[in-house]
Write a structure and sequence with these properties.
The structure is a single chain. This protein is an all-alpha fold. The protein has a single domain (3-179, 194-380), classed as MFS general substrate transporter like domains (Growth Hormone, Chain: A, Up-down Bundle). It contains 18 helices and no strands. The protein has helices spanning 3-21, 27-34, 38-66, 68-86, 92-109, 112-120, 126-133, 136-146, 148-156, 159-180, 194-205, 208-237, 242-270, 275-290, 296-324, 330-341, 343-359, 363-380. Helix 14 packs antiparallel against helix 18.
Length: 392
């Protein structure tokens, strides 16, 4: 993969996730300043993911037709605009509206990163490639959780100032993409006719194995977004300061990073995919159950365990559409996976916030995450083994 593509992919990952997850450690500040409920602040976490649900399939179709550069470039411009506008918000309505603008660009860009992999990598190396391209995701998320309150907030002074500072990576990513990336001429030159796009759409939605993967993505995003979005609050309920709570919660995401790079390579080496789905879901179920009794001392290990499990299964799930579908159908298949799967990412934080509003703790929420992870384990066993070893 060309270095300019890797550089831009890393920037995009940071630009996508840091502006979203900076909300989590600032949740008490935003909640008190705007007089919100936990459910409403949960909506600020869910709004960008909701736009993934809405835009992922259209973005995939457009990418298959007009090419990767224009499609991702448009998404990055929208992200930058929404990120800057959030810094001007003075009430919940305007903040939510600008978050949706950011989310539109987020949802327009996200599914096409898989298309980027399909252009520059051979299909049998897609799993490894997705790990490389997505390595910016955990970096952006972890930075948003870890440094927002202790470092950026004192500099910015207000939560609006924090949003302005976190808009800088989105602007840099947009400018870098348009300058450094050229429209690929070989593999990506297949500008589809409308009938071909319709055929691709039908093929994707009739693929029962892709539906299984989409259900697993739904459970993954539900559990991980619920956990990572409310982990800072969970630690604050245990008596930590907001700054320390964000730092502890960021361990989950820092633990994702090495799995993004190592798990795909291991999967490629042994030629199997299924163990990298069902084993992490079992590990997550155990971690969520134990987390009901979490302490400050044990929190670091539990956060790391959840992150390692999440990163391992996520890279596998994201690569599967590249291996289950034809190259010309990757855009729409990826859009389908994210559109269905990321409904869980919308619902997860909202349910966590609602449970917190009612019970004033997250024990019931953790029980729900445990049950869903166990259910996903059994579903993962139904997914066909498509690794090079072709074992079932």
């Amino acid at each position: 993969m060309p270095r300019n593509v890797i550089f831009c992919a890393l920037l995009i990952g940071i630009a996508m996730w840091a502006p979203i997850y900076c909300v989590a450690p600032m949740e008490p500040i935003i909640k008190d300043h705007l007089l919100l409920t936990h459910t409403q602040t949960g909506l600020l976490l869910s709004a960008p993911v909701l736009m993934v649900v809405v835009t992922a399939i259209p973005a995939g179709l457009v990418s298959d037709r007009v090419g990767i550069k224009k499609t991702i470039g448009l998404g990055l411009v929208m992200m930058a605009a929404g990120a800057v506008l959030r810094s001007t918000a003075t009430d919940f309505t305007s903040l939510l509206a600008y978050t949706f603008i950011f989310g539109f660009g987020f949802g327009w860009t996200f599914p096409n990163l898989q298309k980027l992999v399909s252009i520059y990598f051979e299909k049998d190396k897609a799993n490894v490639a997705m790990g490389i391209v997505q390595s910016g995701f955990p970096i952006g998320t972890a930075l948003g959780l870890a440094i927002t309150v202790p470092i950026i907030l004192p500099i910015a002074g207000t939560y609006q100032g924090v949003f302005l500072i976190w808009s800088i990576p989105t602007i840099i990513a947009a400018v870098s993409w348009w300058i450094l990336i050229k429209q690929p001429s070989s593999k990506s030159s297949h500008i589809e006719k409308p009938s071909t796009s319709i055929t691709s759409f039908r093929n994707a939605f009739s693929n029962k194995h892709l539906w299984l993967v989409a259900v697993l993505m739904f459970i993954h995003t539900f559990t991980f977004r619920n956990w990572s979005g409310w982990a800072p609050v969970m630690m604050m309920l245990k008596g930590t300061s907001p700054g320390l709570a964000g730092l502890i919660a960021s361990v989950t995401v820092w633990a994702v990073l090495p799995t993004f790079l190592l798990a795909p390579r291991l999967s490629h080496r042994i030629g199997l995919r299924k163990p990298f789905l069902w084993v992490p879901f079992i590990v997550s179920a155990i971690a969520f159950w134990v987390a009901r009794y979490i302490t400050i001392n044990t929190s670091w290990f539990i956060m790391a365990l959840v992150g390692a499990a999440a990163g391992t299964r996520y890279t596998t799930l994201m690569a599967l559409p590249l291996e289950l579908t034809h190259e010309s159908e990757v855009g729409v298949a990826s859009g389908m996976l994210l559109s269905i799967g990321y409904v869980g990412g919308v619902i997860g934080p909202l349910i966590g916030g609602r449970i917190l509003d009612i019970t004033q703790n997250l024990d019931l929420s953790l029980l729900v995450l445990t049950i869903l992870s166990l259910a996903a384990t059994f579903i993962a066993l139904k997914v066909p083994e498509i690794g090079p070893s072709r074992r079932t």
